[in-house]
Design a protein that fits this description.
The chain folds into two domains: about 5-75, no CATH class; about 80-210, Beta Polymerase, domain 2 (2-Layer Sandwich). β3 (about 145-155) and β4 form a beta hairpin. It has a five-stranded mixed sheet with strand order 1-2-5-4-3. The chain is of the alpha+beta class. Helices cover about 45% and strands about 20% of the residues.
């Protein structure tokens, strides 16, 4: 057989889809949905290990895992997830109204609609003195717990920002506090690397159909 013939026969094999990549995406989505893992890298590593594929397996992108997670929710939680999402969005609206002085923005799974039973409300607040946010939360009786969260404004560099965890209407909330100068600049999404989608109180109220 001539070399050209061998090359033509190998061509389709090189173009064949790698089903291991799809399998890892599906298993990573299951881990995130059922066990509350939020870090895409951890979920993909755990998925590859559980599938016995080794460290050299080609991993899916975060976007592929997010798409697999959305599909799992449609299949397995189609009856319950809408009610859960609405409750989380109402809790978000309540928190945003109580914290209006800090220009709150909703982001994350509660905004995208991909929230699971392990998801919490993810808020961005803006204040040059983060302790003022803590004091406001305490005054509202929300018993805030101080935390740090890392965000990226450049692809190759992340930095810590102060924040608080608290409960509103039975729903876990996390508020990251950014300086006022960053109100118009969203950090980069872990899913697609683009600026995070965020909305304000009016937009959320419109989504919920409330005044």
């Amino acid at each position: 057989m001539r070399s050209g013939d061998r090359s033509r026969r190998r061509g389709p094999d090189r173009q064949r889809p790698d089903h291991r990549r799809t399998a890892v995406a599906g298993e990573a989505a299951r881990i995130m949905q059922e066990h509350g893992v939020t870090d895409f890298r951890d979920a993909k590593a755990k998925a590859a290990e559980r599938l016995g594929l080794g460290k050299s397996v080609p991993l899916p992108t975060n976007e592929e895992v997010a798409a697999a997670l959305a599909e799992r929710q449609r299949i397995f939680q189609g009856d319950t997830q809408p009610e859960l999402l609405e409750a989380l969005r109402h809790a978000a609206l309540q928190a945003m109204r109580e914290l209006a002085e800090f220009h709150p923005r909703l982001t994350g799974d509660v905004l995208s609609g991909h929230a699971t039973e392990h998801s919490g409300v993810d808020l961005h607040l803006f204040c040059d003195t983060s302790e003022l946010v803590g004091s406001a939360l305490a005054a509202l009786g929300l018993e805030p717990h101080a935390i740090d969260r890392r965000h990226r404004f450049r692809r190759d560099e992340s930095e810590p920002f102060p924040g608080y965890e608290f409960i509103v209407d039975g729903c876990e909330c996390v508020a990251t506090v950014f300086p006022l100068r960053l109100r118009g600049q969203a950090p980069l999404s872990k899913v697609d690397g683009r600026p995070m989608k965020r909305i304000g109180e009016r937009e959320l109220a419109g989504m919920l159909g409330v005044a």
